[in-house]
Amino acid sequence: MMELIRLKECHSLTLKYSEEVGKGVYANKEFKEGELILKDEMLVAAQHSSNKVDCLVCSKCFKLYWFCRATDWEETIFAKLCCGGCEEEHYCSKLCAESDWESVHSLLCTGQSSGSSQAAMLRFLEHANGTNDIFILAAKVISFTILKYRKLKQLHFEGCKLLDRLGETDESRFSMLLEAWKPISMGFKKRWWDCIALPDDVDPCNEGSFRMQIKDLAFTSLQLLKDAIFDNECAYLFSLEVYGHIIGMFELNNLDLVVASPVEDYFIYIDELPSPEKEEAERLTRSFLDALGDEYSICCQGTAFFPLQSCMNHSCAPSAKAFKRDEDRDGQAVIIACRPISVGEEITISYIDEDLPYEERQAQLADYGFKCRCSKCLEEQP
Ligand SMILES: C[S@@+](CC[C@H](N)C(=O)[O-])C[C@H]1O[C@@H](n2cnc3c(N)ncnc32)[C@H](O)[C@@H]1O
């Protein structure tokens, strides 16, 4: 964990473990109110399939498409293609396309040059889109780990060519797989079917069969994924236990991906202009807004895995807020201090609307599997 913090050069933060709440993030320096604490880059992310129709974003950095400036015309045309030739993913630049291909997409692509069985991958995606698109995120985690493992293995054996691969043992392969898995292990929690909240329309006496149905759904999805990308050397990743934990990690981590539409800012800006500049600006931009249609201000919505943010615990009187500033136009998580924070203090965020009454807060937090005992709850509990 500390390695990840070092890699991200977050010298101002530290991770600690407590019996009561597990991992937590603590301040190594003082933060002023409004100061940036952390920009956490997502490891894997996916836009909700229903949101894809209304909001075109880069599949790697999640910047809104027409907001990205390409350097020249050729780049603009080239940038939008996936390296494998599928039409599912779109990119704002060649750099994003190549980086996504190398880190995740090459195994999940349904194009001609994909590294998986196209028909099997299509079956997996169809099932995920028809049931729960969290499976696509889980597939991305598995693909990320396999590709990283292969890269580590290649690097390792390039380094000891003369050994004629004698160094390749089950043990060395396993330790490379563990190394590839390390960033994901940060968010590992409970199995999906154990931690998913019971929906309101399910009678508590049917809880057992509900959880069984969820497990069966995960099993079906995993079989379809195995048909598409199974790798014998990474067989551990394809166990139902690991798959259930990966999905559970998204269920329990408060990791929404939101990238606002820049058009919203335009309206705020225009509203604040004095007359007659306001009317003039509206006249000049009306044709552009008409061309964009009614859904111009829909933001990108999805789910992402942010390794460090996933270690931040909840408080109804939080010390920090996940809050995008004007300049934060991509899918990174931005954490800002919402009051002064002293050295050694825990950085907490609120997973819910902390202004709700006590009972409602506790009910919503039950979905995350815990009863909140923060200072505000202790004060307000009946
Ligand atoms: C996003 S994770 C936070 C990191 C977590 N402590 C860990 O070890 O990975 C959310 C989980 O942390 C625990 N948690 C977070 N805030 C808590 C709190 N105020 N009280 C008790 N448990 C909490 C719950 O188990 C919750 O499902």
TrEMBL record:
InterPro entries: ATXR2-like (IPR044237), SET_dom (IPR001214), SET_dom_sf (IPR046341), Znf_MYND (IPR002893)
Residues covered by the MYND-type domain: 58-109
Domain SET: 11-352
Domain of life of the organism encoding this protein: Eukaryota
UniProt GO MF annotations: methyltransferase activity; zinc ion binding
UniProt keyword annotations, A-Z: Metal-binding, Zinc, Zinc-finger
Cross-referenced Pfam families: SET
Name of the molecule in the record: Uncharacterized protein
